[in-house]
Amino acid sequence: MIEQILLTPIGKVISGRIDIKDDYWGSEVATIELDSSQFTEEVLDGLEEFSHVDILYHFHLLDSSKIQKGARHPRNKQEYPKVGIFSQRRKNRPNRIGVSTCKLLRVDGLKITVQALDAIEGTPIIDIKPYMQEFGPREIVKQPNWSKELMKEYFL
Predict the structure, then answer these.
(1) Residue 4 placed within a domain
(2) What is the pLDDT of residues 20-49, one digit of tens each?
(3) Is residue 20 assigned to a domain?
(4) How do beta strands 29-34 and 11-14 pair?
(5) How many folded domains does the chain comprise?
(6) What is the DSSP letter of 23?
(7) For 64-113, how does the pLDDT look when each residue is reduced to its tens digit (9 = 90+)?
(8) CATH number of the domain within which 124 lies
(9) What is the distance between the alpha carbons of residues 23 and 47, in angstroms, rounded to a whole number?
(10) Which of 19, 36, 43, 146 is the most exposed place for a label (fewest CB within 10 A)?
(11) Cα 20–Cα 152–Cα 100 angle in degrees, nearest 5
């Protein structure tokens, strides 16, 4: 049996965006405010030297009864093939964890400001990692055409 994991959020999203739409995240600017009861400003020392960060967060408003553990049509559109939840990036994931690679705009005390974070106001942040090219793909990235069609307006 696999052990359960207990995570404590490290901070939260301050963005003003409260609507959960599937598109138009590219110009969104959000601030991540770290929990001052857990951290001092030194936790972010050196982060400003990176252009991008990976943000891991929790889809906290998703009702657990809506979690998907099988296959479905992405965005419930029949024109897309039915694929497993681990073959798409839907929020209805078993552990409700999201990840985004965002442009880092600034670091200020216990706050970082990012662009293109697809998380709404109040979203709990699980982790922040600097994006390093060496952790990105070392081969050509392959993905099905339906996913390209699905994502064409996501980061506009």
Answers:
(1) no
(2) 777 878 889 999 999 999 999 999 999 999
(3) yes
(4) antiparallel
(5) 1
(6) S
(7) 999 999 999 999 899 999 999 999 999 999 999 999 999 999 999 999 99
(8) 2.40.30.70
(9) 28
(10) 19
(11) 55
